[in-house]
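Contributing new complexes? Match this layout with thiamine diphosphate.
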Amino acid sequence: MAWLRPGSCVAKLALRRSLVRRGCYIRTCVDPGKNRYFHTTVVKLKDQDAPVPRSVPLSKLTDSFLDGTSSVYLEELQRAWEADPNSVDDSWDNFFRNFVGQATTSSGVSGQTIQESMRLLLLVRAYQVNGHRKAKLDPLGLEERVIPIDLDPGLYGFSKDDYDREFFLGTWRMLGFLSENRPVQTLRYILSRLEQAYCGSIGYEYMHIADREKCNWLRDKIETPASTQYNKQRREVILDRLIWSSQFENFLATKWTAAKRFGLEGGETLIPGMKEMFDRAADLGVESIVIGMSHRGRLNVLGNVVRKPLRQIFSEFSGGTKPIDEVGLYTGTGDVKYHLGTSYDRPTRGGKNLHLSLVANPSHLEAVDPVVVGKTRGKQYYSNDVDRTKNMGVLIHGDGSFAGQGVVYETLHLSALPNYTTGGTIHIVVNNQVAFTTDPKSGRSSQYCTDVAKALDAPIFHVNGDDIEAVVHVCELAAEWRQTFQSDVVVDIVCYRRFGHNEIDEPFFTQPKMYKVIRSHPSPLEIYQKKLLEYGHVTKQDIERIQNKVNTILNEEFIASKDYVPKRRDWLSAYWAGFKSPEQVSRIRNTGVNPEILKDIGKTITILPDNFKPHRAVKKIFSDRAKMIETGEGIDWAVGEALAFATLLVEGNHVRLSGQDVERGTFSHRHSVLHDQETGKKYCPLDHVITNQNEEMFTVSNSSLSEFGVLGFELGYSMENPNSLVLWEAQFGDFSNGAQVMFDQFLSSGEAKWLRQTGLVVLLPHGYDGQGPEHSSARLERFLQMSDDNPFAIPEMDPTLRKQIQECNWQVVNVTTPANYFHVLRRQIHREFRKPLVVMAPKNLLRHKECKSNLSEFDDVQGHPGFDKQGTRFKRLIKDQNHHSDLEEGIRRFILCSGKVYYELDEERKKSDGKDVAICRVEQLCPFPYDLIERELKRYPNAEIVWCQEEPMNMGAYNYIVPRLSTAMKALSRGTTDDIKYVGRAPSAATATGFYSVHGQEQTELVQKALQSERIETYIHT
Ligand SMILES: Cc1ncc(C[n+]2csc(CCOP(=O)(O)OP(=O)(O)O)c2C)c(N)n1
Ligand SMILES: [Mg+2]
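Output block (do not edit by hand):
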């Protein structure tokens, strides 16, 4: 019903206009430039004059009851109703029935006009919409807020004399306050109920939610006073939890006086709030919670909520001994204590067991959000949590970062997408009203730091962090909301930060007034203890007993921490058991597939159901694909990829590909989801690879138009279970820099910092084909520059001992054949460790006539192309395709290249009859295939060595290749860096020219130069 919506401005304006006309309402002007919190409003009423409504054209009236000038309409309605009650809407029928009935039975109501009743309803509604703006949210009492005028009864024509009059309210088909079986109430009672419900320690924002059922559900919870009362037992538990939270910080502060811990002081109620939230969630069926949070209070959450052993926390806090035990388990670089993640089982108050995982995160605030959500979704898939009630994500935010970081919005916007939803994330904001040194008024343009969540129709509960019971109440309510409606909800704990940003920071430099107040402000614990003592719910002895218990345990754990030996096995979760660390050799496996299986699968994914009517062009594509499988020839990129996915599925793995427009494919090559041209129905061939295949086992999904958020999500997803091939594809490779934090902080360094493996595959379309600066380069150089393989040391390359990939932070490949693409994808799963894979994905090779493979290159048949000594595997390097022997002394030039430029070089070689030139493709750039490079160097002992690339000199692989290639050359006494000739574009600021003709000219020149008959001086195009 429209009148429940917040779009009440029409009504407000009408009412205000009407009152202003009558001269009874004055509003002072506000200088918005000064401060949005520092203006005041005065409402002045002129005696008892009730404003006289003015008639308005019927066309402007609605059933919404909102227009304060609707009396003419109402009278008409009443006449109609009296003639025939069915002639009006149910709500009016209800209204008139109640109103007329009451008017005749109650003397208090007898003087009430329809206008008064309407206005009273508007007042009630104003509280529901805006009551939160009058709520006492700031524990410090410093925030000066404008109390909305529509919370003033005077605005509606009510004066003090009306307070003891009885008014009719009706029931209005909505739950909560107005639904009570008591339609006649005094104005005083109504107002006090409204104040209690909406203007106490909790400010509820929920009237922006469009769904009436959800509004009513919340209204019922909010307006029922009994729900906020806790009994003595509960209060003792809450007190105990608050003591744990407070003493934990005190303890750290006394033991490590000069350490940064980003303490929770001022916001200690977060911990009991979380615990109660988790207990309630467990009661409602949640079994596992994935938590993401930044620095503030992280140690406290780890110790008290996640229950990471305190001795371990203290040991890490003391500087963290590097684990030396457990042979073969790796050490990594480690990270500061407030970034580390962990997981434990926590028993709940209701006797359940809750699995909690806190995800490790970088300093980059909020970057962990999508990772947590993705991991939660992964858990839901693997635990068959179809209705998403067993696994839940909880994100804890700072007020500054929640309002400021764009990834928050990106994450929120994944929340209701079919392939990304997790059935609701609970967001808790530790709103200490400052971000490092920045005040909210400099840090955000919105009233609340949580306003971004309104875009989602998420309810937002603002709560005074000094009122522990209110905190607990909204935390429980959030859990109930999430389990009932499977959607996001926000708890905004308004608190303060007792010390500086960290414990050694001086807050008085920048917030002197605030900190003067903080200095003498009692802690939440002191406030609660006082309250409970006053109520007589606990005694001083009770409090002392709990405090002593907590102190004793903290001290015991502190002593035990001195001998604590960290265990690395804590780091790998259960599913990953048996997976190898970089210190353990993992057997290299073949990736070829039995030819019969290949054919069978190939048919399944290329033949469409008889009754399906695809687009004409798609039909042709699929019949071409079927032919490829049938003949075993000319397999293209899309089929190579589909075969990789399908064979992995048949082997029982989960495959998930997400990104912008990935279903069809940006370049219209994939067509993994087909659309029936008559019915619009979708058909996904890869959903039918095995009988009764789980719908989600193969997931291909167009994502929201986000890079940071979606890549983070897939990264989190990939971390859940190693038996899944998770891929994220960028629309064009360069858009991946919108997700730079994910690459820098997680993908390239996550394993080293947090010892968590991921086999995520990132597909980045890359290649120079004249589409301009923004669509040519995936910034290959960046990924290579972040690779940690040593350019000057050749690692062990013997196939039985090789750990080169395991020891490297990620793999970067630029693959040039469909078969090799197939094998590199399969290799991700067919190994005993997981490592991120960055693929410079092709664009024009998708349809290039030469870029084809035969089915025999995919199989494992001895003697077939692709099968070498070990079997069929991904080729890290593809040697020259001319049948060269092991020693080719007549080859004058040895060109190394990577990616699609190979095909152009090969074509030019054919044209120029360059039989004395060898061209070899480095398919895996990182880690560098030293063994194969050396093999090729030896094959061409007299050749001049050329690196050819189409990217500018300061980009592409050149700077990565040179030191490594020269290391290999030095090992064979084949020269030094100076002997590597460069053929490629000149250094450039922009990645590529915007002029197609210039591109063509550059490309022709560099290819010709690489094949020229004269020796090559290092070449820079000018
Ligand atoms: C993306 C990012 N930018 C800047 C910083 C530096 N920084 C660390 S904490 C902080 C303030 C955070 O404020 P808020 O979100 O309110 O959390 P609080 O510290 O107040 O709990 C800043 C700016 C960071 N860690 N991450
Ligand atoms: Mg803050």
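Reviewers usually confirm one structural detail per submission. For this one: Residues 575 and 935 are 39 Å apart (CA to CA).
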